[in-house]
Amino acid sequence: MAPSLHVFGRAGLYEMMAAVLFAVATNTISINKSETFFSSSKKVPRAERGMKKDQWIAVGVAFLILAAAAFREAFMIMERAIQ
């Protein structure tokens, strides 16, 4: 399949967008942290972990994007089954 703008009508792009947004929004809840790939990880104190209001909003938006993508994909499958 040749590259085209039809990819914006498919669900996969939006599923990946939701996953990336979820990962970015939850970056502060990790238990361990390492400064570089090769350094050993150190425990993050419980007081420094957690999520702010804007991060919770981003998680909600990611969930809505994922739900819309799932609905779109289900619609595409049912549309094809009817034809």
Description:
- The relative contact order is 0.18.
- This protein has one domain (about 5-80).
- The chain has helices at about 10-25, 55-80, and strands at about 30-35, 40-45.
- It is mainly α.
- Helices cover about 55% and strands about 5% of the residues.
- It is built from two helices and two strands, in the order H-E-E-H.
Gist of the model:
The chain is mostly helical and 83 residues long. It has helices spanning 12-25, 53-82, and strands at residues 32-33, 42-43. It has a two-stranded antiparallel sheet with strand order 1-2.
Number of domains: 1
Q: What strand order characterises the main sheet? A: 1-2
Average pLDDT taken over every residue: 90
* Shape type: elongated
Our count of helices gives 2
Provide keyphrases for this structure.
mainly alpha; 83 residues; 2 strands; 2 helices
Indicate the topology:
Blueprint lengths: L11 H14 L6 E2 L8 E2 L9 H30 L1
